[in-house]
Structures are given as C-alpha cells and as structure tokens.
Amino acid sequence: MTRMLLHWAITALAVWITSRVVPGFYVNGAAAALIAAVVIGLVNATLGIFLKIVTFPLTIVTLGIFWLIINAAMLELATAFVPGFEIRSFAAAFFGAIVLSLINMLLKGLVLPKKQE
Predict the structure, then answer these.
(1) Which of 27, 54, 102, 104 is 20 to 30 Å apart from 111, CA to CA?
(2) What is residue 47's DSSP assignment?
(3) In angstroms, what is the C-alpha Rg of the chain?
(4) Contact assessment for residue 31 and residue 83, using Cβ atoms and an 8 Å cutoff
(5) What SS3 state is found at 27?
(6) Taking residues 21-33, what's their average pLDDT?
(7) What percent of the chain has pLDDT over 70?
(8) How many CA atoms lie within 13 A of 66 on its CB side?
(9) Residues 6+ apart with CB under 8 A from 77
C-alpha cells in the first residue's frame, strides 16, 4: 500500500514538473496534479492498453513512435476528466508525454527502493 501511494505521489510530482517544463501543458495546483496522476494511470491502464494492442502492427512499422502518439492521446483524454489540468495542443501533449515519461522514470529510479527478489 505504501509503495502504491509513493508511486502516486511521484507521478503527481512528475505531472507538476512537466507542466513547468512543457509550454501548453498546465496544472493548477497540487490537487489537480494528484487527480491527474490517478486519471492518467486509469486511462493508460484501460483504454491505453487496448489501443496499444490493437495498433501493435503500426507500432512495429513506425519503430515504436506510434506509442508516443497513443500516450499523447491518453493525456489529452485525461484532461477531459480533471479540472485544473489542461493541454492546449497535440504538440504539447506529444512532448508532454515524452517529458512525463522521462521524469517519471528518473524520479522512480531515485526514490523507490529496489524490489527484493
């Protein structure tokens, strides 16, 4: 349970940092970042997985670049459910998805303890 809450807090921090780095990617406060982290996770875990499976052949042809487009679309969809979370253009969503992924990986690598095998 603690690990899940830590993942949530780290993702919310990554969303907030991304909003400061990527123009057109806006988050109004900590509450919006926390809610956005949950909604982004839910959207990616449901519709995102489905889309990645359905478009797998296209992803292979584009050498994985199409997954970035799917991630950007999932971010755009998440903005519809979270007040205070706004992405002004698809380009902002595209670059925001890249930056969000990189920051999320970096923060989780620094903060989360390694799992014991």
Answers:
(1) 27
(2) I
(3) 14
(4) no
(5) strand
(6) 93
(7) 98
(8) 14
(9) 43, 47
Instruction: State the virtual CA torsion across 62, 65, 66, 69 in degrees, nearest 10.
Output: -150
**Strand (E) or helix (H) holding 54:** helix 49-54
Residue 80 reports pLDDT greater than 90: yes
Structure tokens at 113: 């303890």
Tell me the C-alpha to C-alpha distance, in Å, between residue 45 and each of 23, 34, 103, 105.
26, 17, 19, 17
The stretch 80-93 carries a mean pLDDT of 94
Whole-prediction pTM: 0.86
Which has more pLDDT, 95 or 114?
Answer: 95
First-to-last C-alpha distance (Å) of the chain: 18
pLDDT exceeds 70 at position 117: no
Residue ranges per domain, the chain?
Answer: 2-111
- Amino acid 5 reads L
**Which one, of 68, 34, 37, lies nearest residue 52 by Cα?**
68
